Amino acid sequence: MIIYNRKLVFLILIIALILIGGCTDDPNNTVVKIAYQGNIEEAPLLTAYEMDFFKKEGVDIELVKHDFDGIVAGIKNGEIQGATVDYRVFAAVDSGAEIKIVAGLHGGCTQIITKESSGIDTLRDLKDKSIGVTKPGNGSMVVTSDLLKAEKIDQSVKWIVEDEENLKKLLQRNEIDAISILEHPDPSKRALNSGEKILYSSSNKENNGKSYKHFYESFIGLDDKFIKNNRKIAFKTSIAWLKAAVWVDENQHEAYRTLIEKGYFKGDFDSILNKAEYFMWMPGVKYAKDNVYIYVSQQRSQNILRSDISDKEFMKKIYEPLIPELNGR
Question: Which residue in 147, 178, 283, 313 has its CB near the most CB atoms, within 10 A?
Fold first, then answer.
């Protein structure tokens, strides 16, 4: 699924260039350093670099490899201007990092699995129960926390953090009440172990209330100082990134093979493709902003974020409306 198709992205470029045309920065004199870690989530960034999406926008990009902590430190000291970021960026900003999310890249769906014999038949039945997640504060956890908040039981549950394989073992041994993990977009590939059932699936069209379908898992993150001092370049960098995400969605096999051959990803093509099957490349702005707010509110609710400011104030720290919405998207 694509939130922005190619024509929409081009039109955004025209609109935004008019809006920011008064800026005086010159893309030809600025080298923008973007960090990567070597993860499949970074396919749009790496593709934009290898296939000259950045050059076509008049932006000179240099790629540098760092782990996440190195990216945060590099942005803090001005050595890096941006990176693909995920759920961890919120805690980084909470600790003082000046990183702004400007758009979303890929999303996924969440499923909550319980045992058929558990007596848990509704979300409300999860009150005082234990729920397993793979990472504290990731997309599946904040979606589940937001769902439980609507039932006014989000503070009653105990979160257990393990890798997915161990979570499934704990559930089978009745040592945990439920697990919240990514759901495969293909229903035929959603395998359950014997005695398990899906309590909730965000892809279910019959869900009531707020939609969490294709909830954003990765974003474009830019240095706040870079945006302030080079807004036009930051915009052009983001547009190239989004265009590349559209191209990756439409040419996934070619994109992944190319990036494997160039040494960006570890693993063979099949293993990379199996992981990427859970991704929905959906470059966008409006829905990204909505999802960022859920990350903020639920990570704060679960004490992952500890700064003493309101959700609204935190949004000002972490989200930048660099790219205008178009037709409500």
Answer: 283
One DSSP character per residue, 281-293 reads EEEESHHHHHHHH
Question: CA of 172: how far to CAs of 114, 127, 200, 233, in Å?
Answer: 9, 20, 18, 52
Instruction: Evaluate whether the domain defined by 6-106+216-318 bears CATH number 3.40.190.10.
Output: yes
Q: Note the pLDDT tens digit of each residue in 129-157.
A: 999 999 999 999 999 999 999 999 999 99
CB 32 within 8 A of CB 61: yes
Which tens digit of pLDDT belongs to each residue from 63-121?
999 999 999 999 999 999 999 999 999 999 999 999 999 999 999 999 999 999 999 99
Domain 108-201 coded CATH 1.10.3860.10: no
CB atoms within 10 A of CB 266: 10
- CATH 3.40.190.10 maps onto the chain at 6-106+216-318, 108-201
